[in-house]
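Q: Structure for this?
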Amino acid sequence: MTADGPHHELPGHSVSDATGVSRRPSRAGAGAALSGGAWTRFSRSPWFNPLVVTLLVGAGVVYFFMTGGGPRARLERLAEVYLTQDRWRWLLSGLGSTLVLTLIAAVTGVMIGLVLSVIRMAWRAGAPIALLNLFAETYVTVVRGTPVTVQLMIIYFGLFADLPVSRVLAAGLAFGINSGAYVAEIFRAGIESVDGGQMEAARSLGLPYLLAMRKVVLPQAFRNVLPTLVNEFITLLKETAVAGYIAVEDLTREANNIRTKTFDIGPLYVTALIYLVLVLLLTLLLRRVERKLREGDRSQVNI
Amino acid sequence: MKVIEVRSISKAYGDNLVLDEVSLEVRRGETIAIIGPSGSGKSTLLRCMNRLEEVDSGEIFIDGEPITGRGGRRLDQVRRRMGMVFQQFNLFPHLTVAGNITLAPVSLRMMRPDAARERARELLRQVGLEEKLDSWPDQLSGGQKQRVAIARALAMDPEVMLFDEPTSALDPEMVGEVLRVMRDLSEAGMTMLVVSHELAFVRQAATRVLFMDAGKLAVDLPPAELFDNPPNQRIRDFLDAVQQKDAV
């Protein structure tokens, strides 16, 4: 809270107007001063979330003061930490690894989750696949019942030990194998959310089970779980921060590399901020997706 | 000529016997109406015929071929020869009307997409909905949805059409349009089994009426005989009850 006390409000985000009744942002006050559309749009976008602004500004402020000294000393310190040895590039390449890692994991996870969920649904529908189903259930139980870090190390130092697989790829697959178990549960719920009559209608037309699943049930299930799926990707992105356990030079590990070289914890704040921005971008994507889905529903009803 | 032969099939859900030694022969071109109190096994009988439900005992033959018992691929072949229309339409909401109709013929590689689309247009003309080819299911009324569902089933060129209470989820003003399509189909010589309590339609279109009661096939008569001269009190009461509902 600022020293100005309760009367201070961010422009364009006043909580009440003069009457104290309306709780909508006042356009007349701030909008006039800031000449129009851009600010209004910004203030109404999901970005303009007080919590988000506080976090962003707060992190920046904390970071700046952590480096100590007067303005000149601070700048020199920043230059030493980030410009010496081009260390800022470490963060950049770490970010690259993190993104590649997450992408590999997301794709692997979705494919594994898809197969596992279909196995479990087909078993429930009476397909003679007891062994496959046992495998799928065991997979989900084991993966969800053990820490991802342990899985990561077992997979890299154990299963992939003698294979010519790069660390990033190995870590990507490991996180994908982990995520697959969670995605399987998401898809299972999605498939269950599709009316049983859909499968019956498809089967009554002579479509085999898997084809009916692929053409009729899964497209509807996918649509239902898309928001949950994006949430899983957000979790996944943050989880990859433990990839350093198998010496993957991801964003987190690169930040720590700089810290050990400079004894400056600033890079960790920068890293936190980068993760936060990535997560916010995914959240924006999620909102877009949700809005598109809602609009889709509406247009189909109204026309 | 026999298209379907049902030989004493039985089916139970737990202790509840829903089909009790039902036997039935369906000749080509017949329209058979199945009526009876709720829970008497009408829907289950239909659903056993294309094996959405499995019978516990007994046999079903199509063109002399047994369809009961095990066998995955053959099951899908059997279903392609029987179109099914459901009470709740079950259109695929993520596909357009054309997509609904062409899905099975195209993805089973029985037709090329453009040929299937032309066929869809033709079938829609038949059910009076040609202009809805590229509409979405959500844009259709209940009666239109059900007519599309009929077109979708016809796209597989089935030998038999099964209708499971096709009008009971419809608003009253939409029942007629669906029944008209069914009557046309019946007059064109399609073999049909219809679970329906639309007695006027049954009287007009059916060649035989089956009255089911507690899992048994109680009566099997031409509609005129059954309606004008109900063979027993139980049926008389049932017909009265249905007609009273219509009168109210």
